[in-house]
Amino acid sequence: MKLWLNIAYILVVLGLGLASLWPNLTVRFAPAQFYTPSTPGLEATSTLRPGPALPEVQKVNLNTASQAEIESLPGIGPALAQRIIEGRPYRTLEDLERVKGIGPKLLERLRPLVTL
């Protein structure tokens, strides 16, 4: 008899053996246990105190701001700030797109930070 046939027969017998044992197999799980660290002398408080209020973001008015104020905006350097000043007055934020160096992406970044 060939070796692979012997192995196949053994696997069949093992399979039948496990199949006959299956109804008798039980799995028991231990109840879940959780670790709760504690420090002696400290008690948990159930009240939350409000944190410090966040400072309100002051929007930069592009029609009246100084060059330094405009340069404080993200993505705006001295040259671009100067071009923004030279392009005044602006009636809408979309008017900023006519300034060389301001595209749709930068305009969207500036939108919550500026006013007219």
Automatic annotation (TrEMBL):
A single BP term in Gene Ontology: DNA repair
Helix-hairpin-helix DNA-binding motif class domain boundaries: 68-87, 94-113
Cross-referenced InterPro entries: Endo/Exo/Phosphatase_dom_1, Hlx-hairpin-Hlx_DNA-bd_motif, RuvA_2-like
SUPFAM superfamilies the record matches: RuvA domain 2-like
GO molecular function: DNA binding
Gene3D superfamilies: Photosystem II 12 kDa extrinsic protein
Any single GO CC term annotated in Swiss-Prot or TrEMBL for this entry: type II protein secretion system complex
Domain of life: Bacteria
Name of the protein described by the UniProt record: Helix-hairpin-helix motif protein
